[in-house]
Fold this protein.
Amino acid sequence: MINWENITKVFSSDLLSRPVKALDDVTFSLVEGSTTGYIGANGAGKTTSIKIALGFTSTTKGQVTFAPSLGSDREEIFKHIGFLPERPYFYPHLTGNEFAQYMGLLSGMTQERMKERVTQLAERFGIAHALDRPLRTYSKGMLQRMGFLVAIQHDPKLIVLDEPLSGLDPLGRKELKDVIVDLSREGKTVFFSTHIVSDVEEICDRIVFLEKGKLSYNGGVADMLAKASSRVCRVMASFSQEPKFSTPIIEQKSHGSTWQIKVDTQHREKLLGEILSTGGQVVELSSEGATLEQIFYGVNK
Amino acid sequence: MKLWAVAQYTIKDLIRSKIMWNIPVLGVILALITYVASEFTFGVPERVATNFGLAALTLSAYGIAFFAGVMLIRTEAESRTVYLIISRPLSRETFLIGKILGVSTFLAINVVALALVCFGILMTLGAVLNTQVVVATGFVLLESILLLVMIVLLSMVSNVALTLIFGVLLLVAGHAVGVTQEIMLVKKIPALATSLKYYHWVLPAFYKLNFKNYAVYAYSFPWQTLGSALVYWLSYTTGLLLLGCAVIRRKDFD
């Protein structure tokens, strides 16, 4: 839906300071209908690339293009995009209702549709009781929910969220993650940045990993997990005495007469043959699972 | 429609902010100063009241133009609300003009409210409300709108301190340039005289919009000057707005 094509962004604050390369030749695309997690440490360039995509800031090199399904001109394209910035702050003297109305008007919504959507979404986010209060009286969690509400009130096809779960309590995080899952089920394309990998593992089907301004990984979450899982094979087998193998072993541990042996998947058959030929009995055979967090720590190493 | 939405919610936010206290506070101060000053005047209390009234109106309008102008786009960028707005299907130019329209309307509310206080005092002192006072008040509003647009433009290309410094300098210079042209020393230096003659083409000549003396001394208006002042205000403000639109179109909100 959005294509980042060879995006490079260099910041230079003044003539004397050294230019900083925030993004270095980044190329990736958002798959329509996917929920994509955008991972990277603080300062990796996630927010900058989102700002470039939405036209808030220019690129030093490269370009951003939009899928024809979003529209042909800027106005049409942005009618189909909902965006929530990181740590949003709203007009303090406006009430929640007024702010939602303002955003709705800018999105070209009719009064009736606006009222209907705001009421429905405010109920869902648990802020219906506060809609007539000024936004300055809202807690951080309520403001985040309000931001979420206005980002999706005009029923966009593509929802871009910059660190949407930051600063929320566990219950708030769960609620908003459920909303993202629901949006995904409705066929929306969701793209959200975070540095918490477990959130992505929980709700995303695709992942883009950015490291120090460079793209490290772009693909399916399941593919990534499958690749990592299939690397290590774990065999539990019982022996009357300590076994010795010619197969390259990653790890071998004893639990009484039962031994846990880890090998690379490619050596699995050879190991099983050796276990049986030495009189051992295979108790359990499994692939060792890895979390995305472990994988990306691995990637970082 | 979207332009009006931006303007409407800018006014709403401003009206509910503390800046609105400016009207009752200045109104009371204006009433007190005018009363005290007129007591110390011999024979012309209404002239002193007009002078003080228009001065207070002007200072209040300048204050709002500076305060709101410096913060108008900067606060939106710092608080990231600008991202929410420009990610909607509206152009940056609509956003800028809508914001300026909102503050200009707020300036109008402020000027009208203070003018009512001022006119009330004048009438209490037995003065007859003449056209000159009303027209001069109108030009205070036009002048403050021009100042606002100039400050907004400056704030988009520099920081708060520089915006305020350049803003004050241009305001003072824009008022002083009119009388400076009449100084003999200036007339004797052709290069200086020529540059001052064409000053108003490049930088805002606020003196062209100042009709307070006509109000205070009840001089009859040179209608041609008034007309050319209106044309000047319209063309210069439009020029600055177009420049502002070009700047915001290319501005990076990092």
The longest strand of chain A covers residues 2-11. Chain A has a mean pLDDT of 87. Chain A touches chain B at residues 11, 48, 51, 54-58, 74-79, 81, 83-94, 98, 102-103, 105-108, 134, 147, 150, 160 (CB under 8 Å).
